[in-house]
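Support reply, case 0932

Customer input (verbatim):
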Amino acid sequence: MNAKGIFVGYGSNVNSRPNKGKSVIAFPTDYVSVDIETTGLDSTFDKILEISAVRYSNGRKTEKFSSLVNPHQEICAFITQLTGITNEMVECAPEIEEVITKFHDFIGDDILLGYNIASFDSNFLYDKMRDYTDYEFTNDFIDVLRIARKVHPELEHHRQADMAMFYKIDNHGAHRAEFDCEVCNEIFQRLKQEIPNQQEFIDDFNKKGLRTKDIKDVELAIDEENPLYGKECVFTGKLEKMEREEAWKKVVAIGGKIADNVTKKTNFLILGNNDYRKSLADRKSNKQKTAEKLILKGKDLQILSEDTFYSLIEEK
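Our regenerated output:
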């Protein structure tokens, strides 16, 4: 679900997605803003519900593509409440093969714009295009979230809804893909206006800001661009690939924080893979139920699958 309360993957490319386009910092005049809605947070298990793309030339909207998708998967109440998309709405919608092929034809080789696209939409689109077509998702993309964090470090939160509120942009149609495309573009334009020298901004952004040193038994590799940096993380369920304590150290090494229970201060809930698979049938842990309630209330809390967590800490 492009709940903007969900992250999937991180970085410009990973070994499991060869030839995937790169996350870049750029300010083109022509681009396509894209957004998707999905049944859940992991492209391995979940399905796309809606794909939208809006083409802009010199800041003006020129063309659009938008379609619901039949996921052949039950939409849980949480997703329906979040996105407004019901099982009845997608029952007669076209198949993913048809929609993602048309989407591929629409975007061509244009550079894409998205909010949290580096961590969510790009991975879903890459995986589904690979699974259902002969195409590869090779378009480079601009993640407006990354730019917002850099331009406004004084803000506590930088979700699309937060930035829309900051710029007084109407966001009442949030979590429907086409509307989110347009809001994303408007935020991008507002951010551009606050950057006096775009090339200096790009050069400064591309400088590596990592540093390492030892504190106790944790080797730090602080990465202020990582979504986990400065955020409070809670784990639930048994991880398949590493012990819980090792996962804690990975979070602390990046610059994140660990907590035992989901509260209003929690930023990420990481589900063990087995726990995540159970949640597809609504057999959710109390921590996940609490997290979903907080997300629906607008809290800056995001749910990650175990595989997504490994993408964030770059564990292949």
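We compared this against your earlier run and they match. Two observations from our side: The CA atoms of residues 234 and 259 lie 5 Å apart. The first helix runs from residue 77 to 83. Please reopen the case if you see a mismatch on your end.
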